[in-house]
Design brief:
It is a single chain. It contains five helices and twelve strands. The chain is α+β, with helices and mostly antiparallel strands.
């Protein structure tokens, strides 16, 4: 009789220990799930490239945030032109073109347009400024570290400049026909009278053009 009583006590103790272990396992799993939820929440709070703007207001694209072919700013030294873009395909005096707007305020009669792979650059003395940039022959830009090239789609740009894509229009481009275009502001304060046009063709980014009124 005493033997059966001892066996009964042992079985009872084992059962109690098993329940405690199960409670510890369940508690541990609950803590792990809680940690996962916290991690996911942090990941979803990643800030987008574009700032939150008022409804209807175009996004801002600061020249200082752009690197052409990952190297030059919008205005750079003439000596770096061939290093980054190669020799110009053609050169024309700006005076012959009679533009209504200039990148450089204090120009000279010797100022030139440098053309390369469809892109147009303005050269004054020892400086060069990007006027129109075509995404051809491997040309690309880094915008806040994000690469934008000929494979970049309109939907990709929508993630960066949602307001401007919402305001998309269509404009005639000489030799290209009617193309979708979005506008970007050059500064946050609205000081500049100009803006930046980004054109698309076949749903892919086509070119960037700095527009300024005459």
């Amino acid at each position: 009789m005493r033997y059966f009583f001892i066996v009964f006590v042992i079985v009872l103790l084992q059962a109690c220990n098993k329940k405690k272990d199960e409670k510890l396992i369940v508690s541990s799993q609950t803590e792990i799930k809680g940690d996962n939820r916290n991690t996911d929440s942090t990941a979803n709070n990643t800030k987008p490239i574009s700032e939150k703007l008022k409804d209807g207001q175009d996004d801002v694209m600061l020249a200082e945030d752009i690197r052409f072919n990952g190297k030059t700013e919008r205005i750079f030294d003439l000596k770096d032109f061939e290093k980054v873009f190669g020799k110009p395909d053609s050169i024309r005096l700006m005076a012959d073109e009679e533009p209504c707007a200039y990148i450089f305020e204090e120009g000279t009669m010797e100022d030139k347009y440098l053309y390369k792979n469809g892109s147009c650059f303005e050269n004054s003395r020892d400086k060069v400024g990007v006027n129109e940039f075509m995404f051809l022959n491997g040309n690309y830009i880094l915008y806040k570290g994000k690469k934008i090239d000929a494979k970049t789609t309109l939907d990709d740009i929508r993630k960066i400049f949602p307001n401007s894509v919402r305001n998309i229009e269509k404009l005639e481009r000489p030799g290209e026909g009617v193309l979708p275009v979005i506008r970007l502001r050059e500064d946050k304060e609205g000081i500049s009278d100009g803006h930046i046009n980004i054109y698309f063709k076949n749903n892919l980014i086509h070119s960037i053009w700095w527009w300024f009124p005459c």
